[in-house]
């Protein structure tokens, strides 16, 4: 009985062992054909090493560099002559892992699988977007021929702060580093931000900084109404230096310059800045105003990279108030000073600052050469200037009114006031002759609009418009 029991137990053990082997072999066969195994096989077959020997070299960039990064990768692949196809990774929580982490998760737990490439769009101009890889990989080679895999990852805000990132997988660190450096070089050479008008802002939903493309203004010289000699002085300081940059450097002269435009609200400071943007069509412009001036360090870094560049700081008194005005000083002021000082004198960078309260500015900002070299007041227009403004803002209407009494009656007003006055007079003209084209603005329409704006009940409006 006991011999029979021993044989039965041995038979049972053999059966269990055979069953375990069958189950193990079946599982391995099934795993080998799984999407996770296909992902691992696609990577390791190209790199020629097991997953344990794969290393990663990466570079993380600002979210708004995504289109430039894609362009750099595309040019790199074209250089290599690759007719390579992108492939993707599917699975939950991809935003928490780098490529090596996702591959490890695929190998150990089948957490990630071979999938389709994720695409999205990114702006490359005020009215233009391009398709970029949100998450995808492409098999290629390093400059020395070593097999590598390049991965691109865009922002996934649900997983934290926005960014874009490219990663290079290889069995050889030097090869991966060479690919990263070459892609970085190419993205700088083909930067989509170069020559654009850019504005920093803040996302109301995510709280992070955004970089927005703006259309470049196109203003003629006769559309800028300033006291005689002011506009030529501004152009000589900003535009002439840009036009003669190489000769100035060869003569041992510095290029970096600072311009401060100050005066009451509504006199044309921003309008003058817009004219300068149009006068320098190849120059990159970075605009900061209000609370986004806290991004001045990033703006200065862009200016160094994308020169020739103009950095516009509107209402700079919000940042550059004299440090003695507050017990703890002004941290944003220090950031501004550091940013202006940190750009070398040979950099073709212009800082253009506007303010309504020049007297409140920090002396270190306003008086030191290399920060602000030229400060000009943009005053309220005189009689000649007001007449020019009436003709400027009345170009789209049939302006038949006698301007002499209106010019005399608007002493002390700003350009903004005159612009609004013409708009209201045009509405009056439309009320009287709705079908007339162009609209006629006669004495009655203009005088009625002026009386309305000068009425004591509109004191607040006049104040806001800078009278």
UniProtKB/TrEMBL annotation:
Write down the SMART domains for this protein, in alphabetical order: AAA
Q: Where is the AAA+ ATPase domain?
A: 255-382
The domain of life for this entry's organism is: Bacteria
Which InterPro entries does this UniProt record tie to the protein?
Answer: 26S_Proteasome_ATPase (IPR050221), AAA+_ATPase (IPR003593), ATPase_AAA_core (IPR003959), P-loop_NTPase (IPR027417)
Keyword ATP-binding annotated: yes
**Entry keywords, A to Z:** ATP-binding, Coiled coil, Nucleotide-binding
Which residues fall in a coiled-coil region? 169-196
- What's this protein's family per the entry? Belongs to the AAA ATPase family.
Q: What is this protein called?
A: AAA family ATPase
Lineage summary = Bacteria, Bacillati, Actinomycetota, Actinomycetes, Pseudonocardiales
């Amino acid at each position: 009985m006991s011999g029979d029991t021993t044989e039965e137990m041995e038979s049972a053990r053999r059966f269990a062992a055979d069953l375990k082997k069958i189950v193990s072999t079946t599982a391995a066969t099934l795993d080998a054909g799984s999407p996770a195994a296909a992902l691992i096989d696609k990577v390791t077959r190209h790199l020629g090493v097991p997953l344990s020997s794969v290393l990663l070299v990466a570079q993380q960039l600002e979210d708004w560099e995504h289109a430039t990064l894609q362009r750099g990768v595309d040019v790199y692949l074209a250089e290599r002559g690759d007719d390579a196809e992108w492939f993707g990774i599917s699975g939950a929580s991809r935003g928490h892992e780098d490529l090596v982490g996702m591959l490890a998760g695929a190998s150990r737990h089948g957490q990630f699988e071979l999938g389709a490439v994720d695409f999205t769009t990114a702006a490359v101009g005020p009215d233009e977007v391009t398709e970029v890889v949100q998450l995808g990989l492409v098999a290629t080679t390093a400059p020395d021929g070593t097999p590598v895999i390049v991965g691109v990852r865009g922002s996934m805000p649900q997983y934290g702060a926005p960014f874009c990132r490219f990663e290079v997988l290889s069995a050889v660190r030097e090869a991966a580093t060479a690919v990263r450096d070459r892609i970085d070089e190419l993205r700088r050479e083909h930067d989509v931000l170069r020559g654009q008008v850019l504005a920093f802002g803040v996302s109301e939903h995510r709280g992070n900084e955004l970089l927005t493309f703006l259309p470049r203004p196109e203003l003629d010289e006769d559309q800028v109404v300033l006291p005689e000699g002011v506009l030529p002085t501004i152009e000589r300081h900003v535009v002439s230096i840009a036009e003669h940059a190489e000769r100035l450097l060869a003569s041992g002269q510095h290029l970096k310059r600072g311009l401060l435009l100050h005066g009451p609200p509504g006199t044309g400071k921003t309008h003058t800045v817009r004219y300068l943007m149009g006068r320098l069509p190849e120059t990159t412009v970075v605009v900061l105003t209000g609370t986004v001036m806290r991004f001045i360090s990033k703006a200065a870094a862009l200016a160094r990279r994308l020169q020739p560049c103009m950095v516009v700081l509107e209402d700079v008194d919000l940042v550059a108030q004299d440090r003695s005005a507050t017990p703890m000083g002004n941290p944003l002021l220090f950031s501004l000073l550091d940013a202006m000082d940190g750009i070398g004198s040979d950099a073709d960078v212009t800082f253009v600052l506007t303010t309504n309260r020049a007297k409140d500015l920090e002396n270190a900002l306003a008086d030191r050469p290399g920060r602000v070299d030229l400060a000009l007041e943009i005053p309220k227009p005189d009689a000649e200037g007001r007449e020019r403004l009436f003709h400027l803002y009345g170009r789209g209407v049939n302006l038949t009114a006698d301007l002499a009494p209106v010019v005399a009656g608007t002493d002390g007003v700003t350009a903004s006031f005159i612009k609004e006055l013409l708009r209201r007079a045009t509405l009056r003209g439309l009320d009287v002759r709705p079908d007339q084209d162009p609209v006629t603005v006669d004495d009655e329409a203009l005088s009625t609009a002026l009386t309305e704006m000068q009425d004591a009940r509109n004191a607040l409006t006049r104040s806001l418009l800078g009278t």
